[in-house]
Amino acid sequence: MDESKDKRSQSSNDSTVPRAVVSRLSLYLRELQQLVHDGNTTTNSTQLGTLLGFTDAQVRKDLAYFGQFGYPGIGYRCEELIAAVKKILGTDRSWPVAMIGLGNLGRALLRYRGFHQQGFQIAAAFDVDAEKIGSHVEGIEVFHLDDLAEVVAAKGIRLAIVAVPALAAQTVADSLVEAGIEGVLNFAPVTLVLPDRVSRVGVDLAIELEQLAFAVVNQPENP
Amino acid sequence: MDESKDKRSQSSNDSTVPRAVVSRLSLYLRELQQLVHDGNTTTNSTQLGTLLGFTDAQVRKDLAYFGQFGYPGIGYRCEELIAAVKKILGTDRSWPVAMIGLGNLGRALLRYRGFHQQGFQIAAAFDVDAEKIGSHVEGIEVFHLDDLAEVVAAKGIRLAIVAVPALAAQTVADSLVEAGIEGVLNFAPVTLVLPDRVSRVGVDLAIELEQLAFAVVNQPENP
DNA sequence: TAGATTGTTAATCGATTAACAATC
DNA sequence: TAGATTGTTAATCGATTAACAATC
Hints:
Chain A has 2 domains: about 5-90, Winged helix-like DNA-binding domain superfamily/Winged helix DNA-binding domain (Arc Repressor Mutant, subunit A, Orthogonal Bundle); about 95-210, Rossmann fold (3-Layer(aba) Sandwich). The first copy, chain A, is globular. Chain A is an alpha/beta fold. In chain A, α1 packs antiparallel against α4 (about 80-90) and α2 (about 45-50) packs across α3 (about 55-65). In chain A, the strands form 2 sheets. Chain A has a 7-stranded mixed sheet with strand order 5-6-4-3-7-8-9, sandwiched between helices. The first copy, chain A, has a two-stranded antiparallel ribbon with strand order 1-2. The termini of chain A are far apart. Helix content of chain A is about 40%, strand content about 15%. Chain A contains 9 helices and 9 strands. The interface between A and B is large, with 66 and 66 residues. Chain A binds a DNA duplex through α3.
């Protein structure tokens, strides 16, 4: 039996890929897009590694978790690898996203161009401030949080961004779960309790600065 | 020789603490502050672990990298541990921070309350748009990027937040290095090249959504 | 073909967990 | 004292790196 056919498989053979690998995948994608922008058609594990501060072995191993995308002697074709990584990440399609909370951060994120460029579009915004309900920000309609389930269902929204005050975050999260949301990107500085079936990514802006402060204070040359 | 005196040391005995440990340190701090807010005076490794989804052993091990903060049979005194963790992170003092770029994100971050609560204050903002120079946003003066080195020196600023478009980010980063900045929190979706002596933390908002999409697509129950 | 670079295996390194004596 | 919980050591687990045959 010759099973060597179709070796260039893209089957995500799963069996749990390490989380660290997935986060590097996004970095590879970003670097590849940059390389294409700069006019490159191919790259290789050494170049990608150098750009990101990884070893070449790690780049190859990371990508090999998901299939065979390279060409021995040549490297990787940028566009081809971009398409493959997007497919793995699930961003080969467009994702409608709900924005919850229209304070400073929520409004800024609504206007942020980077989401759309990677396949995400804010499809609806939600708040509880009567002044804001029914208005449009950046062409996006603002609904009352009470209408969450209805709008989410109508627009096929599966992801939500939480940009509400810390005190409101868990309550909002409960509503999101109730509305059938499958993934939450949380900017509130609290640990959200969610059922296992709902995915969660947390970004705490103050914590990022704390990490930076630690790094500066503990620089080899810095008391 | 009895060297058991002063065992409750806070000496960060260094020898390189794993990066993952430091990032969890910030989460412990956040949880501890929450616990105090909720009226607790003591906690323990099991409680902290449960709140954050870590094992109790990991909590103890992480903290033990930096000294002995707990009391066998009792656990940890919240306020005491908060003070210790802040000292380790370097946030027992206040850090003046420069904000570079006053687009949507920069302005939102300028207004974000969470920074101040953890010991960071935006001491100056910088842009290149003549319309903005000299104005004040949230009581913070806006300078031209050309005045970076001067203002940074005058105000003792060591950390900077980069919230400029991707295309401008590396140029801005070079200016920051030139101005003597020691740590950069970068929101631009590019890998900044910085000398080793300058610390770097990157937050790519689109990447966070990508990670969420991957998690949702690869949920045990989700094709 | 010779040179380059992959995918993958084995070796190394580091991080997490389990277990328990020490201690309050 | 008995019960609880730490700090730490040893065991396990997982991730990174090095090396190289396979391949274009």
